[in-house]
Design brief:
alpha+beta, single chain, 28% helix, 132 residues, globular, 7-stranded antiparallel sheet
């Protein structure tokens, strides 16, 4: 996804979240993008990425799907902040909420070292399973 209106292959909910995600996760001097991918046979995820001027892309956050939301346990809120500590299973994560109110819900999980490691392992597995 680039610019303010390009949204090929994204769900309506992802398109609606893009302005907030772009503004909250902006990395100075880098391009911002929202991309969708398939993990396994049926698990689709959307990820916010930054790209440096030299072309290095880095995942910043993964959008919260209903399945991911069911796995998130929010920890103590910090008044006035829209970022909150949480747990997914036994792993600590930070999530971006849709606002700073008490009833705000998670919209994205920041990419942590363990998420990056699992995405890398999964990408390698897909690479080795590709048809030759």
């Amino acid at each position: 996804m680039c610019g303010t209106s390009s949204a090929v292959g994204l769900d309506d909910a992802e398109r609606a979240l893009w302005p907030l995600l772009r503004d909250r996760l902006r990395a100075p001097g880098q391009l911002m993008g929202l991309m969708r991918g398939v993990l396994g046979d049926d698990a689709e995820v959307a990820a916010v990425v930054t790209t440096t001027p030299t072309g290095i892309a880095r995942p910043v956050a993964i959008l919260v799907t209903p399945a991911i939301a069911a796995e998130i346990t929010l920890l103590e809120p910090v008044p006035g902040r829209d970022v909150r500590h949480a747990r997914i299973g036994e792993d600590d994560v930070e999530v971006l909420l849709d606002g700073a109110s008490e009833d705000a819900v998670p919209i994205a999980v920041f990419v942590s070292d363990w998420i990056r490691q699992h995405l890398s392992l999964y990408a390698r597995e897909l690479w080795h399973r590709r048809p030759r």
